[in-house]
């Protein structure tokens, strides 16, 4: 069996924190390129031998690994969540508008393989994690919400819980309440990554969109939380996911509240997701 080779380079820590947040680069053999990520450790991590659960916290379509540290409207929110819940929080970086899947058309878009087969094993090998399904959760905003729901549905052996904040639950841009130029730009990008032969509509959703995995979500039995602002341009995709999960009897927590596709909304959403995950993450 071939051993997975990952190159780990520590970078300067994010400017606001010198002790809790480490930024680093990981070489991805599947894409033959280096990707940045950050990891947030509880303040007492270095003074303990305890192993901790892990949350993978994903960014949006035009974002970066540092977004959750630099764009939230409450200073050091991720640090506070790591300390309060004694959880390691990993914020990976991926390519723009790549949706956290493996493209069947482009070798440079293999972010599913990167997250699942390269980054998760790397984190478990280099940090004191509880390296098991029962101690691992995943969530994210917008495109990251799509990635969290899609990856948790495809790999239930890795996650106990998953969430989405303002997520792209259906990547069919015809469901998005956006200007035509933005819609066409995103649709063209999807066409390049996936091709034109894929179906985005019920009941035969393609396997590259989150709503196409509702059957597996029921079978997997993961704890799910999905929330979206009522003024968000993706609200219809979230309502579609909610309706599909209700139709097939999949337990999940669904939240609609005032708000749009903004960092104010996601800053308020993260503590809600952390409280939800805390009920399911095993700490031994």
TrEMBL record:
Keywords: Hydrolase, Signal. InterPro entries: AB_hydrolase_fold, Esterase-like, Mycobacterial_A85_antigen. Residues 1-17 form the signal peptide. The keyword Transcription does not apply. GO terms for molecular function: acyltransferase activity, transferring groups other than amino-acyl groups; hydrolase activity. It holds the Pfam family Esterase. This is S-formylglutathione hydrolase FrmB. The keyword Hydrolase applies.
């Amino acid at each position: 069996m071939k051993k997975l080779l990952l190159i780990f380079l520590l970078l300067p820590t994010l400017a606001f924190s010198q002790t809790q947040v480490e930024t680093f680069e990981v070489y991805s053999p599947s894409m033959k390129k280096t990707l940045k990520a950050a990891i947030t450790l509880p303040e007492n991590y270095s003074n303990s031998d305890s192993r901790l659960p892990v949350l993978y916290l994903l960014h949006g379509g035009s974002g970066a690994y540092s977004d959750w540290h630099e764009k939230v409207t409450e200073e050091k929110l991720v640090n506070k969540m790591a300390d309060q819940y004694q959880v390691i929080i990993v914020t990976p970086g991926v390519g723009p508008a790549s949706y956290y899947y493996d493209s069947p058309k482009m070798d440079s878009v293999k972010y599913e393989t990167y997250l699942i087969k390269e980054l998760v094993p790397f984190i478990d090998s280099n940090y004191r994690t509880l390296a098991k399904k029962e101690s691992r959760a995943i969530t994210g905003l917008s495109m990251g919400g799509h990635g969290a729901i899609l990856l948790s549905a495809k790999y239930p052996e890795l996650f106990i819980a998953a969430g989405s904040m303002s997520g792209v639950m259906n990547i069919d841009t015809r469901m998005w309440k956006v200007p035509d130029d933005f819609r066409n730009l995103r649709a063209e990008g999807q066409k390049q990554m996936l091709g034109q032969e894929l179906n985005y509509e019920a009941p035969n959703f393609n396997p590259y969109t989150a709503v196409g995995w509702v059957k597996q979500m029921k079978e997997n039995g993961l704890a799910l939380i999905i929330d979206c602002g009522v003024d968000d341009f993706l609200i219809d995709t979230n309502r579609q996911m909610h309706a599909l999960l209700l139709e097939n009897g999949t337990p999940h927590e669904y939240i609609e509240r005032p708000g749009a596709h903004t960092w104010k909304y996601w800053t308020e959403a993260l503590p809600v997701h952390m409280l939800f995950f805390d009920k399911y993450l095993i700490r031994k």
